[in-house]
Amino acid sequence: MVEKNIGALVVTEKGKLVGIVTERDILKKCCPEASCEEVKVREIMSKPLVTVDAETPIGVAVETMTNKKIRRLLVTEGKKIVGIVTQKDLMKGTLEAFRAMDSALFTL
């Protein structure tokens, strides 16, 4: 994860999506108590995996993340993962929407 600058990895078992392991999972669940080399991914991953369809409205995605208390939400088309939405992505999108509204108000 460090080498590839990746904050989360999807966990599969026999080709089936079963969970996600994040930087936060590693820091919270393994490093304070044990050597990270001894801990198995299955022991610290977040499960079940929470996903939304690619056609899901952003508001529903935000509500899902809020209700489930998660920072990343996998986006799927059928059973295939096509992306990931993070809190940072949503904040950036919100900021851009506010800027667009400000611009529209000033042009009136």
Characterise the protein shown here.
By secondary structure, this protein is an alpha+beta fold. It folds into two domains: 1-49, CBS-domain (Roll); 50-108, Alpha-Beta Complex (CBS domain Like). It has four helices and five strands, in the order E-E-H-H-E-H-E-E-H. The longest helix has 20 residues, at 87-106.
Q: What distance lies between the first and last C-alpha atoms, to the nearest angstrom?
A: 48 Å
Helix content: 25-40%
Low-confidence stretches: none
- The chain-level structural class is alpha+beta
| Overall radius of gyration | 17 Å
CATH arch. level architecture of the largest domain:
Alpha-Beta Complex
Number of strands: 5
Q: Numbering strands along the chain, what is their spatial order in the largest sheet? A: 3-4-5
Shape verdict: elongated
Number of helices: 4
Instruction: Provide the domain count.
Output: 2
Estimate what percentage of residues fall within beta strands: 25-35%
CATH topology label of the largest domain: CBS domain Like
For the record, the CATH class of the largest domain is Alpha Beta
Calculate the mean pLDDT score and round it: 86
Order of helices and strands: EEHHEHEEH
The main sheet comes to:
3 strands, mixed
